Amino acid sequence: MVRPFSFIHAKNGICSPFINDYGFTTAAGASLEDTAIVLHLIKRNIPARYPNIKIIIPHLGGLIPMQLARLDGQANTPDLLSPPSAMARSLYYDTVGWGSQAALRCACEPFGADRLVPGSDFPALLTVESYRRTFEYIKESRLSDQEIEQILYRNALALFDFDKAPSRAVPRQEVDHGRV
Asked: What is the number of H-type helices and E-type strands within the chain?
């Protein structure tokens, strides 16, 4: 049985004049909106209240990977059911970082490789790089071979419970390439 999941993606960035009026609507605004989404989920205790819903946040979680200790130490939120870092670590994050290996490593360290899934940012990213490049940067990131394999090949299977699905192997058929 596949558990429910939700992928929450920014539309136009944070919609702040401090960002948009300077031309950074999606360049910086999207990451700030991703950050705000995670903060809202934490404040509403969504990860703690609904642990069976798999929630995927884009763009490596925005600023969240760098804020976990600060959130735990300074967040004035006594109504939380778990520490902010624990709730953030229960979410999943896609690997769209526009080729930033530093951002990928920054997300991998606090969340763990098992919480990162391949992302494509379709169709936006295609304007600047190929899908091949979108995934090659993960292989070049200086993460361990095990972490790279986990991110690129195992996590999505586990996230969507495909690794638990019964095998539906299709019998191999011989193909006659000489016939039309």
From this structure: 9, 4
